[in-house]
Design brief:
Blueprint lengths: L2 H25 L6 H23 L3 H29 L7 H19 L8 E9 L2 E6 L3 H23 L4 H25 L11 H19 L11 H4 L4 E5 L5 E4 L1 H7 L3 H4 L4 H4 L4 H5 L9 E8 L31 E4 L2 E4 L22 H6 L9 E11 L5 E10 L1 H27 L11 E8 L10 E7 L5 E8 L3 H20 L4 H12 L9 E8 L9 E8 L5 E3 L6 E3 L18 E5 L4 E5 L1 H4 L2 E2 L2 E2 L1 H11 L11 H6 L20 H20 L6 E8 L1
Antiparallel strand pairs: 1-2, 3-4, 3-9, 5-8, 6-7, 8-9, 10-21, 11-12, 12-13, 13-14, 14-17, 15-16, 15-18, 18-21, 19-20
Helix pairs in contact: 1-2, 1-7, 2-3, 2-7, 3-4, 3-5, 5-6, 6-7, 14-15, 15-16
């Protein structure tokens, strides 16, 4: 066999080799730029095979057709190379306009070359040269414009790649330089051959040089990972971490992932490498936006939803662009809701699939669902995971950004536990609030001669339902009664004792018992055979209904271990305690309680309070009775001696009704005594809050005589 025959066989073998490389690249088509690379390899294969058949043809007519078909591969190379550069430099797919512009030249060229009448414009068979015994045509008048156009496109693509690589750190430049050199080699070889600078009779070296380029691109891209940051020896600690670790290049592509990262994302590691991370985990798009290339943000922490991919054990079983998470948690039972994934409008599709199902009960994909990928519909498979994301820039020694390190932590269980705790806390808060509201009246009745105001504030430490309570209710003989108490303990047990004490007092008051007898009977009610602690302190008052000509209101007080109320006289503004201390209720079989009669005149104020007021503490200092008396004395009186005047009473008869017999709704402006009682209650509460932010339960009951 002659050496020329060996060269032809080499070209044919090279074409078969290109086909094998194209098959290998197609098997790994999840990598960025893999599809344009397949087109490039197939184009060079067509070029090599047709060139070999052209050189081996004995008939000039047959050689002309093989030479024409060779141009299918030649004109397909520039668009394929540009598509590869677009994908590999992070620009994504070419626009429709760019694609149309790049296809004009191949269409025009193949039309000219396949039509015999116009073929001489490209191939001039009137001037041929002999190569391996075959007559190779010369260049037609349009050949060199075509060649220059192809060279410009090829060199332009290399320039874009080189310009992009000069803006990033040195670890990429050395690797990228190999890519640029490999892509420039066949271009320069073809220029030298077309210019006639090789020895006469030499074959076109371009297909052989493209073979070198293909090996560099394919082997380096998929085996050596030319733009990969993976070190030769990865630390075993990273591989065995429970947290997922992803390494992204500056374009946002996954160049490395540990086993935990693949498990959290539910995406095979081999299928993940080389893909844009937003195609694998769309939820990370918002995180990437916060940390763009060149930004001053070194680290970003966020939390995203990741939807698992059941049944995708190998990359071959996966539908590219079909898997991964969504930005929002979808409602699988409701109508379709538009979502957006990597710039494409998507929707949660209604699934009608059988055979394969995942543990969540949702069906898995089958061959019927491949059309969904083309239509942009997104299958949502399995329940989502809550994943905490920490994204940090990796910089070189001079501070330039060369990669992103992404740490993923599955916090689904933690968030579920926190949600359950919050729900439990909210339920307890609602229960506490319901109990608290049930232990005191929604509103206080206002007597014709006496106005009431009350305040109840739970502990600032948030210890649940407190034991403070108050009430105003009718008593026997047409009189009225009020009670303010403080039950020991907190929570449900305190609420039970509070409710029992309040309604026991109401029942005893209705029987017409004296205040001291009411407290003694309450003490007996609190005495139970069980070991539960049930005791309280109480101030109980019986209000006698004054006659029509009586200007004084008589209040009979009885204290069961409770702090004595404060009385402020309107005539001179003096403040002093009233009542005689007694025994706390519920501790002893019998108690020592007393009755004290207090006459209230118009403008007088009686303040009953729980020990949460005076025992409010800052360090070793308490709020105390003295400070409380000063606050009460400082509240403006602002009323005259004949208050309210007969004229005012005549104009506002609604305030003279009996709340226990007349149930008509009260209207009209606020009574001055009501305003006074509210002012006292608000002033005391504000003073306690200002003095001690950390305090116990506080309850106030204010009586203002009219």
């Amino acid at each position: 066999m002659s050496w020329s025959a060996w060269l032809v066989c080499a070209l044919v073998a090279g074409g078969v080799g290109y086909l094998s490389l194209a098959g290998f690249v197609w098997a790994n088509r999840q990598g960025i730029g893999s599809r344009p690379l397949v087109v490039m390899l197939l184009a060079v294969k067509v070029w090599s095979i047709c060139y070999a058949l052209e050189l081996s043809s004995t008939s000039p007519e047959v050689a002309q057709w093989w030479s024409a078909l060779k141009y299918f591969g030649v004109v397909a190379l520039p668009p394929a190379l540009w598509s590869f550069v677009f994908a590999y430099t992070g620009r994504g797919r070419m626009t429709r306009r760019s694609t149309i512009l790049l296809t004009i030249h191949p269409v025009v060229m193949m039309t000219l070359i396949l039509v015999p009448a116009t073929r001489p414009l490209i191939q001039d068979y009137s001037h041929t040269s002999q190569v391996l015994g075959a007559q190779v045509p010369g260049a037609g008048p349009l050949f060199w414009p075509h060649a220059v156009y192809v060279y410009v496109l090829m060199l332009g693509a290399d320039f874009v790649l080189m310009a992009r690589l000069t803006k990033i750190a040195p670890p990429y430049r050395r690797q990228g330089a190999l890519l640029i050199a490999a892509s420039l080699l066949p271009c320069f070889g073809n220029v030298l051959w077309n210019a006639g600078l090789f020895r006469a009779g030499m074959i076109d070296p371009t297909p052989f040089l493209f073979g070198i380029t293909a090996v560099v691109l394919v082997w380096g891209f998929f085996r050596l990972r030319l733009l990969d940051l993976t070190p030769v020896a990865r630390g075993i600690v990273i591989e065995q971490m429970n947290d997922g670790v992803l390494v992204l290049d500056v374009y946002g592509r996954v160049v490395d992932a540990n086993a935990a990262g693949a498990s959290i994302i539910s995406f095979p590691r081999r299928a993940m490498i080389g893909r844009y991370v937003v195609d694998v985990v769309p939820g990370l798009a918002t995180v990437l936006e916060k940390q763009e290339v060149g930004s001053a943000v070194d680290a970003v922490e966020d939390e995203v939803l990741i939807y698992p991919v059941p049944g995708a054990d190998t990359a071959d079983e996966m539908l590219p662009g079909f898997w991964g998470g969504l930005f929002a948690r979808p409602d699988l039972t409701g109508p379709e809701k538009p979502l957006r994934l990597t710039g494409r409008p998507l929707s949660v599709a209604a699934l009608e699939i059988d055979h394969r199902t995942d543990p969540s009960g949702l069906p898995g994909p089958t061959g019927k669902d491949r059309p969904r990928e083309r239509t942009g519909e997104q299958l949502v498979l399995g329940p989502p995971r809550d994943v905490a994301v920490s994204m940090t820039w990796v910089t070189d020694p001079v501070g330039r950004q060369i990669a992103r390190l992404v740490v993923l932590r599955d916090v689904t269980e933690r968030n579920r536990t926190e949600r359950q705790l919050r729900e439990l806390l909210n339920e307890q808060t609602r229960l506490s609030e319901t109990l608290r509201q049930s232990l005191r009246p929604a509103s206080l009745p206002q007597l014709p001669a006496l106005r009431f105001a009350a305040r109840s504030v739970p502990s600032a430490r948030g210890e649940g339902v407190g034991g403070d309570f108050y009430d105003v209710h009718p008593a026997g003989g047409g009189e009225s009664a009020f009670v303010l108490g403080d039950v020991s303990g907190k929570g449900v047990h305190a609420a039970v004792v509070t409710s029992m004490a309040r309604y026991t007092v109401r029942t005893l008051s209705a029987q017409g018992w004296t205040p001291s007898e009411v407290l003694r009977q309450l003490n007996r009610a609190l005495q139970t055979p069980d070991d539960l602690e049930r005791f309280c302190t109480v101030v109980y008052g019986l209000v006698s209904d004054p006659g029509p000509d009586e200007r004084r209101i008589r209040v009979t007080l009885s204290l069961g271990g409770h702090p004595p109320p404060l009385l402020r006289r309107h005539r001179d503004g003096s403040v002093h305690t009233v009542g005689r201390p007694g025994t706390a209720l519920g501790l002893l079989p019998s108690v020592d309680v007393h009755e004290v009669v207090v006459d209230l005149e118009a403008g007088d104020v009686l303040l009953a309070y729980t020990d949460g007021v005076t025992e409010a503490r800052v360090g070793d200092e308490q709020f105390g009775e003295k400070r409380l008396a000063e606050v009460l004395a400082a509240v403006p009186r602002g009323i005259g001696p004949a208050w309210p005047s007969p004229a005012w009473r005549l104009e506002h008869p609604e305030y003279e009704r009996n709340p226990w017999t007349d149930q008509s709704e009260q209207s009209g402006p606020g009574h001055p005594a009501t305003q006074l009682a509210d002012a006292v209650a608000d002033s005391v509460l504000a003073a306690v809050r200002s003095f001690a932010p950390e305090r116990d339960d506080v309850a106030l009951l204010v009586l203002a005589a009219t």
